[in-house]
Amino acid sequence: MSQLVDIVVIGAGSAGLLSAISSLQAGARSVVVLESAPEYLAGGNSSLTKNLRFIHNGRAMADFLSGRQDSVPSSDRFDPYSGSDFLRDWLRLSDPSFDRSLIRSIIERSEKTIVWMHSIGHRWKYERTILPGAINLHLDGGGQGLQRRNLMAFFSLGGRIYFNATIEHFAFDSGHWVVTDSVGRTWKAWSLVLAAGGFEASTRLRVKHLGEKWRSVPLRGVPFNTGHVLETALAMGARPSGRWDSCHATPQSLDAPAHRHPGQMHQAHAANRYAYPLGVVVDASGRRFFKESEDYGNHTYASLGAAMIEKANGFAYQVFSGEVVANPLFPKHYFDSDSSYSARTLRQLAHELAVSPETFEESILESGKGYSIQEGWYAFPTRSGLTFTYGGLKVGIDGSVIGDSDAPIKGLFAAGEIVGGLFGPGYPGGSGLTAGAVLGRASGASAALHALNSSQS
After folding, report:
1. Cβ-based neighbour number of residue 121 at 10 Å
2. Separation between Cα atoms, residue 10 and residue 195, nearest integer Å
3. Superfamily of domain covering 2-246+390-456
4. Helix and strand numbers, DSSP H then E, in the chain
5. DSSP letter at 256?
6. Where are the alpha helices (H) located in 167-215, listed in sequence order?
7. What are residue 7's DSSP bridge partners?
8. Domain map of the chain by residue range?
C-alpha cells in the first residue's frame, strides 16, 4: 500500500529540511522527508558544519542575527560583504564553464535566505579568529544547532520524517513520483525533491570519478552519501553538471577517523587544521608543495586537501614558528593530538621529522615569510579528509532538475550537495551550506506550487 502525499523530500540534511519547511509554508498539505540514516545518526554533513557565506551590511547584520546589540567588539574590524564581493570570490575559484546565472542568483538571494532562516528560529554569533578573511559569524550551536532548529520548525508545521528509509528506486508514473525504500515502503507524490548529497561515501564512484588515489581517503562527513539517488536520477534522464573529477577535501588531524556521525560536531571541528596560512606546508620529505598564503585560508583550504592527495599521498606537515603558536588566538586544538613536534631550530626539527635538513630549511626559509632559522618551531602532521563531491545534477534557479533535453523534468527538484555546476576546482568557504539553503528554499516553494497545481488539475 502506497502513501499519497503532496511532496517527498529525499534527505534530511539542512537543504532537504529547509526545502520541506519552505514547501509547507508555501501551502503544501503533506510533506514527507525520507532519511537513510537511523534517527540517532540523522543530520547529514550539515550537522558537522558551522558557517554560511552571505551578503551582509556588517555590524548591523551581526546584531540582527545574534539578537544582541554591539555583538562585534568595537576594536574588531567587520566590514560589509557585498554581492560583488561574493561573486568575485566565487567566480575566481570556479571553473569558467559553470552557469554564472545560477551562481549569481544564489548570491543575490543569500541575504534574504538568511533573514528567512532567522525567521524560523536560527541565530548566529560572532567569534574572533587569528585567520585573515575568515567568516566570523557562525551558526549558534554550529551544525548541530542548525539541524535541531530545522527539525523543530519542520515538525511545528506538521511535517513527518521516516528514518532508515534507504531509497531503492523512484520513477515518474501516471502523474506521480513513486518512491520505494529498501524495506518495501512506497510513497506517491506530486513533487519530489532530491537532497541526498553526493557520492563521497562510495569507493566505486570515488575511484571512477576522482581517481585511484581517492580510494581509501577518510571522510570528514557522514558515511551515508553513496550516490545512489544521484545515479538513479541520471539514469532516468537528469542532466549531469559540474566538475566530477573534483571535490571538497581539507587538512585534518592525523588521528581523524574514517568518517564522522552527527553528534560529533565538536570532534569534527577540533580535527580541522586550517591555520596553515600562518605557516608552511611540506610533504613527508620536507618539501614545500602548496602556496599557503596565496589567498585567504577559507578560499584555499579545500584546494589544499586535494593537493595533499594528488601531490603528497594524502599527508603533510604544517610548520609554524614559535611566535605564531604563542598567539592567544592560535587554535589550541592543534595540540589535542599526541602527534606534534617541536624544536629550537629548523635543523633540529628536521631531525625530529626524519627529513632532509637542507630540503626542509630551504622550503621554510624560501616561503617568503621572513623566518629565521633560530626562532623555535612546531610541526603538526596532517592528512586529507574528503567532505563532499562537486559533480551532480543540473538545476534551474528555482531548483528544478534539468533533463537531457535542457527542459525541467516535471515535478522533480534538487538542493544541497547533489547539485552540480557550482564548485571546483576551488571553493569559497561557507558557500556550500548557503547554496543548499537558497536552493532548498526555492525548491520547496517550487515543489509546493507544482503539487498544488497538479492536484487541482
Report:
1. 13
2. 5
3. FAD/NAD(P)-binding domain (3.50.50.60)
4. 13, 17
5. -
6. 203-209
7. 31, 191
8. 2-246+390-456, 249-386
